[in-house]
Amino acid sequence: MEFNDNDHELFLGKYSSESFDEFYEEYEELMNFVNSLPAEIRAKKGFNKKNLNYNELSRLLINKRNTISSNALFRKNNRAKDSIIDFWLYGVNAKANIMENLPSLKTYTGITTSCVKEILSISNNPEGHLEIPLILMDKGIILIYEKSLDGLNVDGIVYKNKNGNPIVSLSIRHNRVDNFWFTLAHELSHIVLHYDLLDNVIIDDLDKNSDSEIELHANKLAADFLIPKNIWRSCPVKYAFESNDIKEFAKQHNLNPAIVAGRIRKERNNYSLFNDIIYEKDIRGDLFNG
Ligand SMILES: [Zn+2]
User: Fold this and answer.
1) What is the pTM of this model?
2) Dihedral, CA atoms, 269, 270, 271, 277, nearest 10 degrees?
3) Residue 215 alpha carbon to ligand 1 centre in Å
4) I want to staple 261 with a disulfide (CB 3.0 to 4.6 A). Which of 59, 97, 131, 277 is the partner?
5) Cα(83)–Cα(57) distance, rounded to whole angstroms?
6) How would you class 283 by CB atoms within 10 Å of its CB: exposed for 0-12, middle for 13-18, buried for 19 or more?
7) Nearest-CA neighbor of 38 among 91, 88, 95, 93?
8) What are the structural domain ranges in the chain?
9) pLDDT at position 277 over 60
10) Which residues lie below 8 Å from residue 29, measured CB to CB, with a gap of 6+?
C-alpha cells in the first residue's frame, strides 16, 4: 500500500485538526490566565515555567471549563486582581459540582427569616461550623468552604445554580469565629432578600463599608439574625470592657460569645478588644486542617 500527500488528512481528519487548534487556543488562554496570577499563588500551586505541575494544571483546566459553562460564576476580565477571584471561584465550582449531585441535597423551595434565624442558632454550638453544611443541604442550600488565597479580598459569595439551589461559599480569610458567622449570616440574608438577583454571583468583601442598598440590607439582617434586635437594643453589655461580662451575657441568651464580642468591636470600631474571646477557636484549622 502506498501513501500519498492526502493521507494525513484522512488520518487526522478535518475535525481533528480543528479540535487541535481549539485545544491549543484553550491551552494558550489557560497559560495567560496562570501568568496573570500573583507569583506567590503560582509558586504555591506549582505553576512555575521551569517546573510546571501538570496534575494541578489539568485540574485547573477542568475547573475553569466547568466554571465557564456555569454562567453565574463566569466573569470575563483581564485584571490581575480578578484573576485571583476567578481562580478561587474555579475551586468553589468544582466542589459545587460534587455537592449538586449528592442525594442529601433537597430541592430549594424558599426560606423564611424565622427559618434562617433558627438555623443560625447553631452558632452557639462549638461544632456548629461543622454541622451547618448538612443542615443547609436539607433546605436545598449548598455551603462550601474554599480556603482563601493570598491577596483574595473575598469573605464570601452567593449565587444560584440552574436548579435554583442557592450556593454559598466562605473563604475564612480571617481566622475569626465572629467573621465566619457574620459572613454566613450575610450570605443567607442575600438568599432571603435577594434570591431573584442570584443568577449573577454576589462577591462580598465585608472589610469594605459598602453603601449599596443590597449590601446594607444584608448586613442589617445578618446582625439581627445573630443577635436578636430586642435583646441587643437595651442591653448594658454593649458598654462592657470585661470579657467575663460578655461571656455571662452570651450564656444568658444562648449566644456565641465571639459573636457578641465581634458586634461590640464593630460598633465601637475598636478591633483590639476581646481578642481572648475572638481568637479562642482556630476555625480555619478546623475546616482546612491548618
Ligand atoms: Zn453582600
Assistant:
1) 0.86
2) -110
3) 5
4) 277
5) 15
6) buried
7) 88
8) 13-99
9) yes
10) none
**For 234, how many CA atoms within 13 A lie in the half-sphere containing its CB?**
1
Residue 154 Cα, ligand 1 centroid: separation in angstroms?
Answer: 10
Q: Is 170 helix (H, G, I), strand (E, B) or coil?
A: strand
Helices (H), the chain: 7-36, 39-45, 54-69, 80-99, 113-120, 128-137, 177-194, 213-226, 229-233, 243-252, 257-268, 275-278, 283-288
DSSP notation for 105-148: PPPP----HHHHHHHHGGGGSTTHHHHHHHHHHTTT-EEEE---
Q: Which residues are within 5 Å of ligand 1 (an ion), measured at CB? A: 204, 215, 218
Cα-to-centroid distance, 268 and ligand 1 (Å): 22
Cα(50) to ligand 1 centroid in Å equals 40
User: pLDDT digit string (tens) for 133-188?
Assistant: 999 999 999 999 999 999 899 999 999 999 999 999 999 999 999 999 999 999 99
Cα-based torsion angle of the residue sequence 208, 222, 283, 209 in order, rounded to the nearest 10 degrees: 10
How far apart are the CA of 241 and the centre of ligand 1, in A?
A: 30
Separation of CA 194 and ligand 1 centre (Å): 10
Distance 139 CA to ligand 1 centre (A): 21
Average pLDDT, the chain: 88
For residue 130, pLDDT over 50 is answered with yes
What type of residue sits at position 290?
G
Determine the Cα–Cα distance for residues 64 and 74; give it in Å rounded to an integer: 9
For 24-39, what is each residue's pLDDT tens digit? Answer: 888 888 889 998 898 8
- Residue 23: band (very low, low, confident or very high) from pLDDT cuts 50, 70, 90: confident
> If you measure from the C-alpha of residue 184 to the centroid of ligand 1, how many angstroms do you get, rounded to a whole number?
10
CA of 65 to the centre of ligand 1 (A): 26
Ligand 1 mean position, distance from CA 36 (Å): 26
Q: Find the length of the chain.
A: 290
